[in-house]
Amino acid sequence: MYKLLIFGAATLIAGCFTTRDIPAVQFQKLKSGLRNGELILRTDKGKPVRFGPRSQIRFHTQNNRLTSWYRGHQLRVNRAGVCTKKGCTPPKDGWTWDQIKSAQVKNLSGGKTYAAVFVTVAVVAVTVAVVAALASGKGGGGKLNLKGIFPRGVRVRGLRPRGGGGVRVRGLRPRGGSGVRVRGLRPRGGGGSVRVNRPHHHGRRPGRVHPPGNRNILDGLPQPDPGPGPDDQKTHSATDAERSAPPPPPPPPPPPGTSNQPPVLSLHAAPGKTSSIFGHHTRRRSSIRLIGLVEGGGDLLLADGGNIQALVGMRILDVLELAAGAHLMIHRGEDQTQDHRASWIGVFRLNLHFDVDARRRFALPLGFDLGAGQATFYARLNFGLRIRVTQRLSLGIYPFNPTYAQFKDTTLKRKPGWWSFPTTIDLSFAL
Fold first, then answer.
1. Smallest Cα–Cα separation from 324: which of 307, 309, 306, 340?
2. Of residues 180 and 352, which shows the higher confidence score?
3. Are 177 and 152 in contact (CB under 8 A)?
4. How many CB atoms lie within 10 A of CB 343?
5. Are the C-beta atoms of 107 and 353 separated by less than 8 Å?
6. % of the chain with per-residue pLDDT over 70
């Protein structure tokens, strides 16, 4: 169970990334700085690739070397070259655009990450349900009995080598065991089995393989070179004069300014003033944005009640959304027989926002709402589709989102709760 949870957390953190190759002809868009907005580059096949302050890029030089990965907000450029430090304009050792023949751009893939998160959550939910069902089974006493699942030995059946038969592995034991015996792996010539003794077994060399009939299991295989024989040693023996000769002089030191180590590629500026590719506003928006939304809808299946809410929050790194606000829920009475009534609920939202395409026109939100107020408990699972209408406004639709609400009935001394599946539409902004 904990392994599934670790895998899910790793998926949320790491995500799924897509790397695209960018030809040198697209570098014309990178030569001018202080851009207001993200850039759309294109591959050799014309596929659009988003390059923004949070995108990663590395360059492929003319001598077939790759630089390290850099974030878009780290690069400083001019018409002649590129660098990674503020004020980096040395008069020499500059990386010009002519020295770079291509680049690779890496971005978070919204569709792949959404699918990975959705599948991980589904697997964890199914696993929890199965474990709960087994734990509450007959005679289980609420506990899982794992006795007998892990036998003393390990057997592998059904792995059939040439000539038929099965493969059986015995004796995988801690210290004090009888060694490892492999049956069904027949040496050359057929018959018998192969046994590997313990290293400290007396009477035989440690680790030696003894097939039946004292046949050498290594027959027919290429043998290692035994080394020079006596005759070779005589032929190549050194004379007294050779032994007494002084050792050769050491190699001369490298000239100043050079090193025996292979060069490490880093980006330096070409001559001239450099500036960041993206302006301050674009860099800030890639880190944090102010968001808000107004949402409304109702349960189309039951045609009962409605939901209206307004939220304000922030979007972090263009992925994580945190928001809070007020929710008005129109629902049936507490005893399920009264006329509809309205309840105010304070709501907290945690969403993941996954952009699907390079231009951020479509996005897949996934998250949940939690709240309380005139309802003792309120929870909702959010999933749907967002379509960007303008640079800052988006329209979203959330079909049949599971929602649970619980209310306190002071008359009947109970807490009735019920499920609903409202479909809502929201209008959101991101600054």
1. 309
2. 352
3. no
4. 16
5. no
6. 59
What pLDDT, in 10s, does the model give residues 34-56? 899 999 999 999 999 999 999 99
> How many other β-carbons are positioned within 10 Å of the β-carbon of residue 419?
10
- Quick check: helix, strand or coil at residue 337? coil
Would you tell me the crossing angle of helices 110-135 and 2-14 to the nearest 10 degrees? Answer: 170
CB atoms within 10 A of CB 101: 15
Query: If we measure between CA atoms, which residue out of 348, 346, 381, 387 comes closest to residue 366?
Result: 381
Q: How many CA atoms lie within 13 A of 347 on its CB side?
A: 30
The residue behind tokens 């699942």 is 149
Which letter does DSSP use for residue 418 in this model? E
Sheet-wide strand order for 180-183: 168-170, 180-183, 194-196
Virtual CA dihedral for 147, 153, 157, 161, nearest 10 degrees? Answer: 160
CB 2 within 8 A of CB 131: no
Residue 400 carries which side chain, given as an amino acid letter? F
Cα angle, residue 150 at apex, residues 149 and 156 outer, rounded to 5°: 105
> What values do phi and psi take at 263, rounded to 5?
-65, 140
According to DSSP, the β-strands at 76-77 and 275-276 are antiparallel
CA dist., res. 404 & res. 371, Å (int): 11
Dist CA 38 CA 277 (whole Å): 10
Residue 332: per-residue pLDDT: 66
Q: Note whether 284 and 318 are within 8 A (CB).
A: no
Q: What is the DSSP letter of 66?
A: B
Instruction: Give the long-range contacts of residues 42-47, CB within 8 A, separation 24 or more.
Output: 47/20
Tell me: the pLDDT tens digits for 270-327? 456 788 999 999 999 999 999 999 999 988 876 667 899 999 999 999 999 999 999 9
Cα within 13 Å of Cα(232), Cβ side: 4
SS3 assignment for 79-111 = CCEEECCCCCCCCCCCCEHHHEEEEEEEEECHH
Structure tokens belonging to residue 219: 């027959």
- With tokens 């989102």, the residue in question is 401
Taking alpha carbons only, the member of 394, 376, 217 closest to residue 294 is 394
Average confidence (pLDDT) over 162-172 = 50
